[in-house]
Write a structure and sequence with these properties.
With 355 residues, the protein is mainly beta. It has a single domain, classed as Porin. The protein has three helices and 16 strands. The two termini are 25 Å apart.
């Protein structure tokens, strides 16, 4: 209880601090409730271990709820958001104390009077992937496996340059690690990344992101190099396609030139039936043969195909009701009542509101 009282005090203090310029300050919020049913009926009521969002079985729960204060002028900017939900429990389990609720906490300053060059530092959303923690901003209710197993958030500093027409931006990042606010004890090496974002018009978005860092304590640390490429193509006012491809490598052991690898393509198609209704389908493939990121008891590693169908209904501009059916297929990758299974199927529904 004390933690949430402190969070409320901080947000109220933020509002008072920026009260001199109320036009630059914006308070927003988001709340997503959900129910998910896993047909493999896990005894722990938790979905498979590689799932971190909407991960509870056969219960109504909150995936993500946050309140956010944003401040933006032509010279400075900042964001402060505190959150709760099963998403936070799963993703922030390793973070210390009140930082377990730090959805965003960053400050930025413009470095040039003429160029659009910004330096931001703190906790911010990941630069990798096209699916975020905020479900309403994604074409499908739940995340694909690659998005679930790359950072949702990052901590560090980033330098961003954007062209005057905002069509092209480049970001360099100095990070505390792979989805870490607090750097791992015993690891003295920072991580880094690059993001190139290009949006030539309203119908095409292209993005390349990478990450370079060391995993584990210094004595046994191994180098990880991860790449993410995606494109979003709005073919018409109603129909769009998103295609992504992830490829990552990591040393098998320190001083060893052999590498583990992850391979993960994904494609999503979305059709807006009307202003209130939309349909989407997703195919994904994920291969991690040597447990670089996803561990598996299968001797062949983690190799899975995924299929999703999604229906959206938005009765109001700030409300979204969703239903998704999803099936994973992989030889002996799943379990039911102690027996290996080739399939995992589930249905998830959610109700999200924002302000």
């Amino acid at each position: 209880m004390r933690k949430y009282i402190l969070i409320a005090i901080i947000l109220l203090s933020t509002q008072h601090t920026f009260a001199q310029d109320t036009t630059a300050l914006k308070i927003s919020g988001y709340l997503e409730t959900y129910y998910s049913y896993d047909f493999n009926k896990p005894a722990s009521n938790s979905r498979p271990a590689f799932i971190y969002s909407h991960n509870r079985h056969n219960e109504v729960n909150i995936n993500l709820a946050f309140i956010k204060a944003s401040y933006q002028t032509d010279k400075v900017r900042g964001n402060l958001a505190f959150a709760l939900g099963t998403y936070m429990n799963a993703n922030y389990a390793a973070e210390p104390d009140v930082m377990k609720n730090a959805f965003e906490a960053n400050a930025g300053i413009k470095l040039s009077k003429t160029a659009n060059l910004w330096l931001d530092a703190g906790v911010f959303a990941s630069h990798i992937g096209f699916e975020s923690a905020i479900s309403k901003d994604c074409w499908v209710l739940t995340r694909n496996i690659a998005s679930e197993n790359t950072p949702y958030y990052e901590s560090g500093a980033k330098l961003t340059y954007s062209t005057k027409n905002q069509k092209l931006s480049a970001t360099l990042l100095y990070l505390n690690g792979w989805q870490r606010i607090k750097r791992m004890d015993g690891n003295s090496q920072p991580a880094g990344g690059l993001q190139l974002f290009y949006k030539p018009n309203d119908k095409v978005t292209l993005n390349y992101s990478n990450y370079l860092g060391y995993e584990g304590e210094d004595a046994v640390r191994t180098k990880r190099f991860y790449h993410n490429l995606y494109g979003i193509f709005q073919i018409s006012n109603q129909f769009g396609i998103t295609a992504g491809f992830d490829y990552g490598t990591q040393q098998i052991a320190r001083g060893n030139s052999e590498k583990k690898e992850v391979l993960a393509p994904v494609i999503i198609a979305r059709y807006a039936v009307s202003p209130n209704w939309a349909l989407a389908g997703r195919y994904e493939f994920y291969k991690d043969s040597d447990a670089m990121i996803v561990t598996s008891e299968n001797t062949r590693g983690f190799i899975v195909n995924g299929y999703s169908l999604n229906v959206d209904y938005s009765p109001f501009k700030n409300a979204l009701l969703r239903l998704e059916g999803k099936m994973y297929q992989g030889d002996g990758q799943f379990a039911r009542r102690g027996s290996a299974m080739d399939y995992n199927a589930n249905i998830t529904t959610s109700l999200a509101i924002s302000f």
